[in-house]
Backbone:
């Protein structure tokens, strides 16, 4: 029976699970709802992780899982990590311990095989971590939508809405009004306050789309967002170490990422995170007590290719 | 029987009601919860206004009310102002029509007897209005805590919390940690997200208090807040017209107001809003069909004194 390695990546919006065999071939994959213990509570987070794990394992034998690792958003705030990892093991019905990492560690490992460097995760939120030996050594940003996250998807969406309120007739303004299904800019305010604040991140793709059409306002918002993200990297990175870009804003093509790469042109090597769930599976393989025979962190992927299925 | 004039000022947090007689003498006063129809709904807002009116009238005869005016937060978003005013009249049990004004108009009238000028209301939120003949002609800011309100009490409180998270050992940082009853800066984030976002405005007075003790961080936050408010004024004001400062941040002594006055030193005359409920009562008197005998907008007060009871 082939040994299997189960990797999970749990973000605020989505949880991804991947099963690799010892040769690095993908044997299963699944997507479930977000599993951040800060937002969902520890019990809810374990339940969603277990859903993703069970779906990825499909008809495979959980008893064949020789290693398992989880990259978890909300890791820092988790009070009892040992208990959480043990609850995961029980819920996944596997015999091997579950290794728990901050989501920054799996995102970093999804972009480089180096042991130390910096990872910028800019999706709905924005945070930058300097990672060393599977731990977060330094950290900037990540204050959330209420307190910061400048340059994040939330921030881009909020700037788009502010712009549309002031200048409803430009490309970006019209796109925002259309998205919000309102006719007059004053109606944008009730729309903004009617839902959960993080909903403003829905508007971030409109910045991308209209910037691609050359809209000067969208380009200005994107450039300012990139400045914020570059400042986050500069506050966190250690000179000469690699930088990994992850998340829908920093890790996907678009004007923010393009400008960010320009601003960080003097930085060392920059790569893009591939699939953090697969990276978690590889970390599990590398840490497997079976040793050398297990899947190493480099197997089955091109570092920095950013082309892994399911990335972003 | 003496004729009475009823004035109300309805904000997001508080509703104030004042009864003046035709000589301008105060005959009643009351405070009730906020009555913003955007937040409370029209029905809830009318109910709270009626509570305040009834309490201010006390044992006085509502039939003696010869004029009534309400300055209303959320006026702009109110769909049917005629119906709202008529519901107020019925709920107040008075025979005279209720004049409805934006809260900016009553705040402006509480600071000057001029017909046209600018009023900056910076309390929990921040908005600037150019007022002319009892109407708002131009408007800036007022986007609310989620979208803007830079320089407002919410913004000052959020900046104080951000600073405390980064620098917990300064005067301001320690004051914030103490207010939030937490020991470590990381605990400030759960505190911030646990309550309604506007609760961050609670921290604004800590900026005032520690700035008064010379804390450089608090002084820097206050100075940046004042820059934002001055920009709002410059975007709105018409040259040469008077400026009225209102609200707990702009209208009360403190480092933001002090810096704001420096920044606007080249502006025309600047005064401080007194009591907007009394100003509403005077507007009602001035508009009274009884004409010249009624309480005029200048009676019973020193314009710009900012010393009226219940101001701020």
Residues:
């Amino acid at each position: 029976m082939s040994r299997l390695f189960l990797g999970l990546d749990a973000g605020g919006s989505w949880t991804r699970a991947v099963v690799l065999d010892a040769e690095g071939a993908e044997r299963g994959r699944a997507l479930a709802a977000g599993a951040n213990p800060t937002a969902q509570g520890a019990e809810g987070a374990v339940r969603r992780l277990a859903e993703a794990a069970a779906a990825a394992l499909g008809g495979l034998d959980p008893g064949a899982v020789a290693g398992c690792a989880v990259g978890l958003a909300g890791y820092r705030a988790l009070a009892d990590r040992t208990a959480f990892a043990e609850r995961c093991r029980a819920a996944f019905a596997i015999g091997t311990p579950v290794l728990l990492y901050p989501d920054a560690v799996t995102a970093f490992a999804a972009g480089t095989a180096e042991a130390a460097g910096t990872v910028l995760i800019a999706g709905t939120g924005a945070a930058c971590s300097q990672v060393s030996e599977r731990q977060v050594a330094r950290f900037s940003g990540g204050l959330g939508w209420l307190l910061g996250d400048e340059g994040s998807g939330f921030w881009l969406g909020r700037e788009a809405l502010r712009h549309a309120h002031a200048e409803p007739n430009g490309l970006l303004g019209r796109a925002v009004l259309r998205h919000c299904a309102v006719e007059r800019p004053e109606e944008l305010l009730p729309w903004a306050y009617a839902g959960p604040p993080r909903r403003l991140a829905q508007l971030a793709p409109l910045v991308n789309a209209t910037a691609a059409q050359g809209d000067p306002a969208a380009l200005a918002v994107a450039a300012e967002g990139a400045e914020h993200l570059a400042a986050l990297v500069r506050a966190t990175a250690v000179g000469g170490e690699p930088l990994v870009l992850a998340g829908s804003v920093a890790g996907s093509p678009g004007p923010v990422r393009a400008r960010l790469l320009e601003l960080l042109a003097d930085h060392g090597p920059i790569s893009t995170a591939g699939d953090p769930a697969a990276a978690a599976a590889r970390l599990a393989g590398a840490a497997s007590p079976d040793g050398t025979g297990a899947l190493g962190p480099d197997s089955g992927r091109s570092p920095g290719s950013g082309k892994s299925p399911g990335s972003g």
Remarks:
- Residues 153-271 of chain A form one domain.
- Chain A has two domains: 4-111+273-293, 153-271.
- Chain A has a mean pLDDT of 90.
- The CA atoms of residues 13 and 34 of chain A lie 4 Å apart.
